């Protein structure tokens, strides 16, 4: 039976210096205030889209930055390369482990084969993978989330905010992970107002086709839904979601962001007034917590799940038009309580 671990958050500030790392398949940055001791800590390898996606990967980087500051050790973050293979990913993770980084985290389900192989080669290193729960190894933490729960609340928000009774969902890639977002969103919409129509579209069948890394594809999909009267569009599409938000702003309808609080993202500042809320999952906290567990000598392993009950998924409240809408907040709070209590069972497919 696998051990399921949860770790709490604590903090202490330290200074940092820059260090360069070279490894297969990309560039990296790292820093340390205690490099003289040879300390090397958290390393992350990004998913498709890389750092700067204002979403999933940037959230992982935020967790790395917190660990770097608090533990004062060298860190590394490495970009993906176009058309890379599982062997490329494995070599990247093995290179990091060989250099002494611990833990080493693959950001995204696509790292599953690589994490499994690298973990077997370096049993003394703790590995983590975000959004995958299939690796049964003593030195691997599966960092997973109940995205469907946050998406359900996004559906409540959409149903309460639409004036046309048409809302949209744009998924980056047609895979089970993104099906969770769609299923929760549609259920939240229909439970709130059955007459509201949900338009759904996936950008690509595979990540290699750019479903998570093509804002132009996201923009085109959103524009098509807006032409069909959708006035709230929810994107679960990584970097492609920026195009959805851009289209919403241009057409003066609402967008719902994903993973990070996209209202606060600097790169999206010109569109923020069109971002109603974001369905968030705290990838930063999960990544940081894994690093903290290793630093504390009791590495977290097994399935580590974040959900509404733990506070690791939910909706952002940065937009005042969302936060100050009492009727909307009451509906969301009621739904949240029912999900946590088990009265509402949210679908994941």
From TrEMBL:
- Judging by the UniProt lineage, the source's domain of life is Bacteria
What subcellular compartments does it reside in?
Cell membrane
Keyword annotations from UniProtKB, A to Z: Cell membrane, Lipoprotein, Membrane, Signal
Give a yes or no for keyword Lipoprotein in this entry. Answer: yes
Q: Where is the ABC transporter substrate-binding protein PnrA-like domain?
A: 47-348
GO annotations of cellular component type = plasma membrane
Does the record bear Cell membrane in its keywords?
yes
Q: So which residues are the signal peptide here?
A: 1-20
Report how it sits in the membrane: Lipid-anchor
Q: Which family does it belong to?
A: Belongs to the BMP lipoprotein family.
Q: What is the protein's given name?
A: BMP family ABC transporter substrate-binding protein
* Organism whose genome encodes this protein: Streptomyces luteolifulvus
